[in-house]
Amino acid sequence: MADNRLAGRDTPNLHDKITPVLYGTYLYGKGAKVKVTTFKRSKSTRFAVLLAAGALVLAGCSSAPNLQAAVGEPTTAAAGGNTPKASAMILASIGTDAHAAGLLPAAIKTKGEITVGAFLQGPPAFYLDSDGKTPLGYEWDLTNAIAKTLGVKVKIEDMPFGQLINSLKTDRVDYIMSMMSDTVEREKQIDFVNYAQGGVSVLVQKGNPKKITGPNDSMCGKSAITTPGASQAEWAKKVSQDQCVAKGLDPIDIQSAPDLATQYNSLRTGRVDMKLSDYATNVYAAQIYQKGESFQVLDIPLENAGNYGIGINKANPELADAVKAAVQKLMDSGSYAKILGQWSLNSAAIPAATINTPKVG
């Protein structure tokens, strides 16, 4: 993914007549404190902004999709049955791990709280429920699970994605977490504790009427759509060359559209045969768009898979070791799998927590 993929993220055409509202500090679950600044919008527009923002995190785009039509209203029921109550049931089973907690830097032990920088408009990782206040997402659940394992409270600082690394380097936050890809370039600035993976996935119509089975000749002569400049287009070009053209078959017709509404409508109406995006974005879209009745994600291994990382200041290796130990404890106990599973993101799991490992495996 290109490092500049979040430029222009605010989608200016959706910001007309939006009134900023500071909701202040809220408590969600034991020890979880979050300060949220958000905006008043219509329900349909709020989801448009959320899904557009989420796609920017995941699709490798350099500018915000021009989403002018509502895709639908997100609900906790639609998103894999996730509710704060469901998350709380998982978190209730997690206790402090003495080994992981013992690795924490003295300053955090004394404070009893860890401050996490995140972008709260990136579903399904971090976002706000339809009330505009309640944080949701699999990374929100993992953040609370890590804090419980370390025996500390968690405070979330909401900020634009592009400010996350700088907030870490200036000690505004202790770590950052927003589906940030661990890359060699980013590792020059910060360290990463790897906790999940992402990669190219394929969204098709419900029932898969075109019988697409993966990056093979079943894609030849079919049409695919993605966002201009997205890394998925390059992947599709390679598949087309290797699996189609080289075998004398028709190439993949690779199309693009700058707004997500056009992309999803094109797939729904059959103008294209598949939509290419990151795994988590496609899973979320399949659950939310038209109440989950239109699309499905192909059950195939992730392509071009790479690891996401929790960003930590290079000057704080003790915290990196503590967070790694906490994530590993969650993996070993089964809580990690439960959290990803309730968001239907089982394929995002990695076998072990690592530090500075950009690629899967």
Describe this protein's structure.
With 361 residues, the protein is of the alpha/beta class. It folds into 2 domains: 12-198 and 308-355, Periplasmic binding protein-like II (D-Maltodextrin-Binding Protein, domain 2); 199-304, Periplasmic binding protein-like II (D-Maltodextrin-Binding Protein, domain 2, 3-Layer(aba) Sandwich), CATH 3.40.190.10. It is 32% helix and 23% strand. The protein has 12 helices and 15 strands. The protein has helices at residues 43-59, 84-91, 98-102, 106-111, 138-150, 164-169, 184-187, 231-244, 260-268, 279-288, 317-333, 335-342, and strands at residues 19-27, 32-40, 113-118, 121-122, 126-128, 135-136, 153-158, 175-176, 190-205, 223-226, 253-256, 274-278, 295-297, 303-313, 354-355. The strands form 2 sheets. Strands 1, 2, 3, 7, 8, 9, 10, 11, 12, 13, 14 and 15 form a 12-stranded mixed sheet that branches. Strands 4-5-6 form a 3-stranded antiparallel sheet. Helix 2 packs antiparallel against helix 12 (335-342). The longest helix is centred in the first third of the chain and has 17 residues, at 43-59. The protein is elongated. It starts with 18 loop residues before the first strand and ends in a 6-residue tail after the last strand. 46% of the residues are buried. The model is unreliable at 1-50 and 56-80 (pLDDT under 50).
